[in-house]
UniProtKB/TrEMBL annotation, chains A, B:
GO terms for molecular function: oxidoreductase activity. This is C-factor-like. GO terms for cellular component: cytoplasm. Pfam families: adh_short. It comes from Serinus canaria (Island canary). The keyword Transmembrane does not apply. Coiled coil: none annotated. InterPro entries: Fungal_SecMetab_SDRs, NAD(P)-bd_dom_sf, SDR_fam.
Amino acid sequence: MDVVCENSIKKVVKEVEEIVGDKGLNCLINNAGINVLASLEEVTAETMLTIYETNTVAQLMVTKAFLPLLRKAAQLGTGMGCHRAAIINMSSLAASMQLVQANEMFLKVYPYRIAKTALNMITRCLAADLKSDGILCISLHPGWLQTDMGGNMAPMQVQEAIPGILSVLDRLGEKENGSFLDWQGETLPW
Amino acid sequence: MDVVCENSIKKVVKEVEEIVGDKGLNCLINNAGINVLASLEEVTAETMLTIYETNTVAQLMVTKAFLPLLRKAAQLGTGMGCHRAAIINMSSLAASMQLVQANEMFLKVYPYRIAKTALNMITRCLAADLKSDGILCISLHPGWLQTDMGGNMAPMQVQEAIPGILSVLDRLGEKENGSFLDWQGETLPW
């Protein structure tokens, strides 16, 4: 799916609808994201907008497109969590405003971390807005992983992080709605 | 100044340079901003990008353009604050992630509050990045004011808020670098 293309999103929603049918969608994981290296000296308006479009705006638009399916699933369940209906926004430790001082290496990725902070605000707004529908929303820092984006210096391989992430998702309940968690389930400061 | 136009920014920087000369610029207040009403149902990718460009990206670009003048002033002073060199990003209570639940009326301004949260992250990054230059950076919530944007329902007139704001700016020191304050100098949560 091309997350910045409305038609591409619509097509995928239709495909998912055909698969899940009347049961709706229980869990939407917004995992798409891009990065560029850009320090204060290097950052441009164009880069800021491109990264925001893919890492922040797209997550909101994809979520909006899947809302009817998430609401359908939520109507069939009780409580809150992935067993009913949940939106997981893949965020980053680099998005934590409180931890900026402690992570000066992240000052080389202005557009990325600013867009991820904005994504955390989307999580907070969705959590408040969709609570009455029984749909939970969190931001999740998956850890620094050896992916195309994470690179070789990352301390963890994807397969090491996945069991932890699945376990966190499995434990989600009303208490976690609107929170910012890492792959071990620890709360991160905004 | 048109804050989303590179040439317009350059022109104003040159004009300011001619006025301040070798003394440089002591205080940059990024006050430009726009708003549109957009709830979750109404928000579009286009509105998200337009508001981000004007309320977030422009502040970073204007700041970058004024950095040589701010650095010039910083070299002539000691300590931290508006007497030396400071960047004031006009933010909003609506940008506080922690206070989302308590401000449900703000759920009607998705693009605005998400962009202002991102602006707060810019404040944090600039505060960390420019500390060694002796340039301070804060986010300031000016209060809900009876302006074109604030509307008639706002509880305060502009002239009521200004003395408080000036007093806060006057008191700024190293302790406040990277903080989120309101017009009375109270710290707001991220």
